[in-house]
Amino acid sequence: MTRLSAITPSGHAHLGNHLGALRHWARSDGPDDLYFVSDLHAMTVSYNPPRLRSLTRELLAVLVASGIDPSRLCVQSDLVRELGALSWVLECTCSYGEAARMTQFKAKGGTAARLGLLTYPVLMAADILLQGASKVPVGDDQLQHVELARSLARRFNASYGEVFVVPEAVTPPTAARVRDLTSPDRKMSKSTRDAAGVVFVLDDPDLIRRKISRAVTDSLDEVAYRPETQPGVANLLEIYAACTGTSPRDLTFPTYAALKSAVADAVIEELRPIRSGVTTLLSDPAELDRIRKAGADRARTRATHRLDSALRLAGV
Ligand code: ADP
Ligand code: NA
């Protein structure tokens, strides 16, 4: 069984990425599991090339510093030639209607949208199929992309010959959903413009404390775990519980100030080793380059045979 997951360098990694994804990836035990920085996906909307390159590098360093086995890491664009080739083959088996049905395109698409916004679910299918991933852990928002990858794999296998593993979406059990600290009605996200409610993995301790002290709560002045009626407080309790290995229902704090101070301490401690590891990694560019190249070589080795078979079966 091979698992595959990705994080897009559309911004800096945040506490939600860490608690909901990265720290679980670090516990991954499948020898062929693969985690990658999906920089090609960041090109589907307007972006700045030097910033993309620097975010990609920073994110790779964050993944390594999070304890993910470097042999399971790679940067998507290091396989751009292989992925480009397979994407074309898959695009030629995918209908316009299938691609246009994807919610991302329905939400942000239009005649002025980049064609890549329409076709990137096919690129995602290429990521999955090229590596022969059997399990793709996803949230609800990504389920339909894995469904598309399944359809395209089945269709190719049936029309041209068996070459692709048909992937399965797996929903990770109770992964923490961290909410924005100042707008607890939405999830913490890299692409949020106002970063006041977003704790970044690389924020310094003072800034983390300041952001958490300004987290939105409510006027009930009672620390209780009631996600429906007290979402801000519930979010802080969940963050504290995730950082300390406790359950949000069991926690008691006398005041909101005491809760926020404890959450800040816990988050600062949780992120400290990652921040320090990233600082070390970014100060030694040759070592990070070496890790990146080794990951790319491994992923490419795994992909080449399957790509060659697919091209041959497709008649080119
Ligand atoms: P973002 O939405 O911040 O751009 P991505 O879409 O790149 O993040 O997701 C990378 C990983 O982080 C995915 O596994 C996703 O489920 C997880 N993730 C993103 N935001 C959160 C959050 N607020 N809480 C928990 N997990 C999250
Ligand atoms: Na996003």
TrEMBL record:
Show the coiled coil region(s): none
Question: Any idea which GO molecular function terms this record carries?
Answer: tryptophan-tRNA ligase activity
Highest taxon of the lineage: Bacteria
CDD domains in the record: TrpRS_core
InterPro entries with a match to the protein in the record: aa-tRNA-synth_Ic (IPR002305), Rossmann-like_a/b/a_fold (IPR014729), Trp-tRNA-ligase (IPR002306), Trp-tRNA_synthetase (IPR050203)
UniProt keyword terms in alphabetical order: Aminoacyl-tRNA synthetase, ATP-binding, Ligase, Nucleotide-binding, Protein biosynthesis
Gene3D superfamilies cross-referenced by the UniProt entry: HUPs (3.40.50.620), Tyrosyl-Transfer RNA Synthetase (1.10.240.10)
Primary enzyme class: ligase
Q: What is its EC number?
A: 6.1.1.2
Q: Does the keyword Cytoplasm apply?
A: no
Q: Which protein family is named in the record?
A: Belongs to the class-I aminoacyl-tRNA synthetase family.
- Family matches, as NCBIfam families: trpS
Name by which UniProt lists this protein: Tryptophan--tRNA ligase
Q: Tell me which species this is from.
A: Actinokineospora soli
Upper classification of the organism: Bacteria, Bacillati, Actinomycetota, Actinomycetes, Pseudonocardiales
